[in-house]
Design a protein that fits this description.
alpha+beta
Length: 231
């Protein structure tokens, strides 16, 4: 797993790819996939410690299916489904931790979101999941719980844009390189966590748990000089 973080030149995140999640955040439905970046330094490998909440941050969780790229992709055609799947080396589960109050302020003021997404530990990831464990990435159940209460549970069948369209849109803008991580969006049910909460995730294929897809991580206070203040 450390190699996923070491080999990731970038982490590309698809926003608003599930209709019910768009509704719960009162966001506009996109006409095409849009994406933002998280730094590889935000990746938190399994059993590497807690998620650290910066002072003053309203910390939200967003469970997502992650694609681990296996080859260079540039200018992929949206209809090239085979080319898209062939370019993927494997999968993982990721939690796109978000400083929601920071993001909301940035949206209102037309500012970038990077600080809302990029703190250290803001991307807990599961172990690597081989492609053989997920025959169809468009038919996977993702779930997330907080203190053993399930908060998110939905199928990737609900994605608005399929993987081929996602990789096409990204690769027509920037080259995807071997080792890059692509987060495919989060379903409904996002919410906040506080210090002391324990977040768990999992992934099911044909109603069977994929053990490599499990995450269990506690939220702790970050400390240090940073404190959220209005920009």
């Amino acid at each position: 797993m450390a190699s996923i973080r070491a080999n990731a030149h970038k982490v590309v995140c698809i926003g608003r790819n599930y209709a019910d999640h768009i509704t719960e955040l009162n966001s506009a439905r996109p006409k095409r996939p849009f994406f933002f970046l998280k730094p590889p330094s935000s990746i938190l490998p399994p059993a590497s410690g807690p998620v650290l909440r910066p002072t003053g941050v309203n910390l939200h969780y967003e469970v997502e299916l992650a694609l681990i790229m296996g080859k260079t992709v540039r200018d992929l055609a949206a209809e090239d489904e085979k080319g898209a799947i062939d370019a993927i080396d494997g999968y993982a589960v990721g939690i796109d931790m978000t400083a929601r109050n920071t993001q909301d302020e940035a949206k209102k003021k037309g500012l970038p979101w990077s600080i809302a997404k990029g703190f250290d530990t803001f991307l807990p990831m599961s172990n690597y999941i081989p492609k053989t464990a997920i025959p169809d990435p468009h038919n996977v159940e993702l779930w997330l719980s907080v203190n053993d209460e399930v908060k998110q549970k939905d199928s990737t069948q609900l994605m608005l844009f399929p993987i081929s369209r996602i990789l096409a849109e990204i690769s027509q803008c920037m080259t995807l390189e071997q080792g890059d991580v692509v987060l495919t969006g989060t379903p409904k049910g996002v919410g906040s966590v506080v210090v002391g909460d324990v977040v768990k995730t999992g992934l099911r294929v044909d109603e069977k748990d994929v053990e490599e897809g499990r995450i269990e991580v506690e939220v702790q206070e970050k400390g240090g000089p940073y404190e959220y203040k209005e920009t």
